Amino acid sequence: MAEDQLLIDKWVDQYINYLLVEKGLAAKTVQAYAGDLNAFQVFLNEQDIRSIGEADTTALLKYIIDMRNAGRGARTRARHLVALRGFYQFLTRLGVLQKNVAQTIDLPKSGLKLPDILNVSEIDDLLATPDRQTARGLRDAAMLELIYAAGLRVSELVDLPVTAVNLEAGFVRVMGKGSKERIVPIGSKAIACLLEYLRLSRPALVKNEPSHAFFVARAGKPMTRQGFWKLLRRYALKARIIKRITPHSLRHSFASHLLEGGADLRAVQVMLGHVDIATTQIYTHVAQKRLIEIHRKFHPRG
Q: Domain 120-298 carries which CATH code?
């Protein structure tokens, strides 16, 4: 391998270390960046580009175009370009490059993809489905109540420790992406269900085994993401919900219902744990779409 190519490897390694150590991004996020940058390095090798200085705007455009020709979607291409923008910005700040040439390339237009959400009636049907007279049913109800009440990611739900839940004050302390902590309030119905779970269900499931996890499976073992996916699918079918829903659908529903009810966008951003409000703004389109549907249905001239 050429010396200049090793130099590119060196800068990529430094950037990945910067994201992990200085920026404090989550390991999975850093792995995604590393994967995108490694793909870019493969492209540079194929183009016989041997130094980062040669990887100019023309080379970047060809990389994005080649991805499109290979059938990669606009969202995937946009993600790769975001990774490259960050990498080039890093090199610019270090003085390795004079300017961030990736910044001049527009993100591929993917169109707005509205997330699938449940309406309030469907949420009510779903939450009413678990049999709260059994230990597992009550646990399942508590998990469904909380993921919707707080807009949690499924990983945040299953990783939640007992110490992060304050039912007296009515909030949960969540460790989100990039090890960023946030505090999210929860409503009275979720609090009541969680209290019942702690009083009746969790002790029966733990069976005297020590566990720091708030939600437990057999013998005090933490619930898994796959386990929650399975129970969600089962209860969705039982509730006769025909939409294809995922745990993230409940998070989407949480945000959309808040905005439909008049919540401030920045407050929703904080509760979701989004660093950039642009990420949250997609839900305003969901809310607007819903309002348009309501107007057309109920307005005399709709």
A: 1.10.443.10
**Global confidence as pTM:** 0.60
Cα angle for residues 11, 12, 16 (degrees, 5° grid): 115
Give me the catalytic one of 50, 139, 251, 252. Answer: 251
Sequence-distant (6+) residues with CB within 8 A of 142 are 193, 194, 196, 197, 201, 215
Q: Find the catalytic residue in 77, 85, 257, 274.
A: 274
Q: Does 251 qualify as catalytic in the annotation?
A: yes
68 in active site: no
Q: For the domain covering 3-104, report its CATH number.
A: 1.10.150.130
* Domain locations along the chain: 3-104, 120-298
CA torsion sign for 275, 277, 282, 284 is: positive
Write out pLDDT tens, residues 286-299.
555 555 565 566 54
| pLDDT bucket at 230, cuts 50 / 70 / 90 | very high
